[in-house]
Amino acid sequence: MLGAVIAGLGLVLAACGGGSAGSDAAEGSGASDQTLTVFAAASLTETFTELGKRFETDHPGVTVRFNFAGSSNLAQQIVSGAPADVFASANTKQMGVVADKAMIVGEPQVFVTNRLQIAVAPGNPKGVASFADLAEPETTLVVCAPQVPCGSATQKVEQATGVDLKPVSEEPDVRSVLGKVISGNADAGLVYVTDVAAEKGKVDGVNFPEAEKAINDYPIGVVTSSKNQELATQFVELVRGEVGAKVLETAGFGTPAGS
C-alpha cells in the first residue's frame, strides 16, 4: 500500500515538474520575440523591405514592422506619440520636426540622397522632354503635396526655373503620384528616380537638369521613446553600413556629400 502511495506521489511530482519545465520553455521562447517598428519615407519601400528581411535573418526572433508614408505624415505621427523605434525621412526638414522636440537620439545621420524625375507612361506618348513641358495645358500632371519632401523639391525647381505648374492633384506621397501615372489617370508625375526604377516597365523616366537644384538628403535616427534602442541602433547601422549602401545604390539612391 505504502509503495503504491509513493509511486503515485512520484507520478504527480513528475507531472508537475514536466509542466513547470514546459511553461518555462514557452516563456523563454516568447521572451526573445521582439518587434522593431520603422517609420520610413514611401520612396524607401523596396529597399527597406529588403533590408528588413536581412535584419530578421540576422536577428532570430525579431520582426521588423514598417510604416511607409509621406515623411511629413510620419513626422506628425511620431510627434503625436505613435510608437516608433526608427525614423527615416526623405528630407532634413521633416526629420527636424521630430528632432527639434528632442525625440531623436543624438544627431540624425544622412545616409542617401535622391532627386526628382518625371514619370510618364511607357513610350512617353505625350512626348514630355523637359520640366517646362509639364506646364503644357494638354498634359495632365500630378505632384506631391507641398509639405511632402517630393512636393517641396518640386516647388524648389519651380522657383528656380520660373515654371508655374498646374497639377490636377497633389498626392500624400510619391507612391500615390506613381499610381496615378501607372493607372493612366495622369500623363506625368514628379517622383524620384528610385521610384521610376522600382516600377520599371510600368512607367518610363524623363530626366531634367533642373532636378539638381533640389537634391533631397535622407536622414535616419533612433526615436527617443523607443523601448528597443539597442536593436534600433543596429538597424540604423545596417542601413548606413556596407550592406545597406549596396542595396540603396542598386536602387538608384545617391551618396551623400562627404561620404
CATH topology of the largest domain: D-Maltodextrin-Binding Protein, domain 2
Q: Would you tell me the overall average pLDDT? A: 89
Number of distinct beta strands: 10
Q: What integer value in Å does the Rg equal?
A: 25 Å
Which percent band covers the strand fraction? 15-25%
CATH homologous superfamily of the largest domain, by name? Periplasmic binding protein-like II
Q: In terms of per-residue confidence, which ranges show pLDDT below 50 for 5 or more consecutive residues?
A: 1-31
State the order of secondary-structure elements, H for helix, E for strand: HEHEHEHEEEHEHEHEEHH
Structural class: alpha/beta
Binned, the helix content reads 40-55%
Oligomer kind? single chain
Measured between the Cα atoms of the first and last residue, the distance is 83 Å
Strand order of the largest sheet: 2-1-3-10-4
Using the coordinates above, name the CATH class of the largest domain: Alpha Beta
Shape label: globular
Provide the fold topology.
Elements (H helix, E strand, L loop, with lengths): L1 H30 L2 E8 L3 H14 L3 E8 L1 H9 L6 E3 L3 H8 L9 E6 L1 E5 L20 E4 L4 H13 L7 E3 L2 H10 L4 E5 H6 L5 E3 L9 E7 L6 H12 L1 H10 L8
Parallel strand pairs: 1-2, 1-3, 6-7, 6-8
Antiparallel strand pairs: 3-10, 4-10, 5-8, 5-9
Keywords:
disordered N terminus, five-stranded mixed beta sheet, single chain, D-Maltodextrin-Binding Protein, domain 2, globular, 2 domains, 259 residues, alpha/beta
